[in-house]
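For the sake of transparency, this paper describes our internal protein records without simplification. Because each token names a local backbone shape, the row as a whole describes the fold. One such record is reproduced below, unchanged from the form in which we store it:
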Amino acid sequence: MVSLTSWIEEGRVKVRIDGVFYNPHMKLSRDISVKTIAKIEEQLNVLDGFAASGIRGIRYYVECKNITNVDFIDISDIAIERIEENKQQNNVEGKIYKIRFEDFTNFNNYDLIEIDPFGSPSKYIPIVISRMRKRKFYLSVTSTDTAVLCGKHSLACIRNYMARPLHDNTCHETGLRILLGYLARIAFIYDYNITPIMGFYYRHQIKLIVRLDKDILGIHDNLKNIDYIYRNKNLEKGIGIGEQIAGPLWIGKYYDLDYTNMDIDLVKKIREEKELPYHYDIHEIAKTYKISKIPKIDDLLAILDGSRTHFNPKGIKTSQNIEKIVNSMKGL
């Protein structure tokens, strides 16, 4: 007889997952988050919102030496039961709150708050920031509503993030920048400046880890990073206003280089990306300009002084104009 009890091992922890949501494909996302949080040079008290099995918060506690305590929130009875079991299994100290995230009021007790809901995190970000009184804290935000952020449901993106998306082959970068721009604009309202520490797209998920500091002068300096990107009919891209626009969004760096020194291929790709808020899809260019033979990306990048991007295996980042890109593709 097969047991209905399901225990899995991930990282340095073992957790029971039957009856609660657990996505094994998000292990890489949790790996990157754990390694990023471990690099923060201060002691952190963590709140794991939407905890489910509690695996993310438990991994923080077990694998990050700078985590002093982790508390958990979930509204599900079975989740509360699993978190308690998993805490005991991994010798984790911390409280469990059976409450809706939006009804929780003690965010000021924490230095790092994990927002990982099903779907959009947009309504939860203002709740945390508006109730926070610390001068500095960290947000770790997950978005799985990538169809919205990538423009498949543009009205929902405008409604949820107050930004217009761009639905094309490069939309995952645009989606991350819309989410980061939204977080920044909410933070600015409450006098918090933001410093992105880590951001990435992976398997229909966008992840951001951001530091927030009370710093009005810093906000004024950072306002330059809120802008638009455009795409014209000829596929030319740039910052500002064109025929098709996306934004407002974040056009600055979405990660801190000091946090990218880790032995994970996706993060290595992030380190090597050029600092541009957009990229081109060479298959989209080939189709539009009827280029029958698509050159090797590395050969093309050598000509264009560009880079690959983790957002898109067919994507290139370059500041060259579309005419130069097309002529280079035709010439190879």
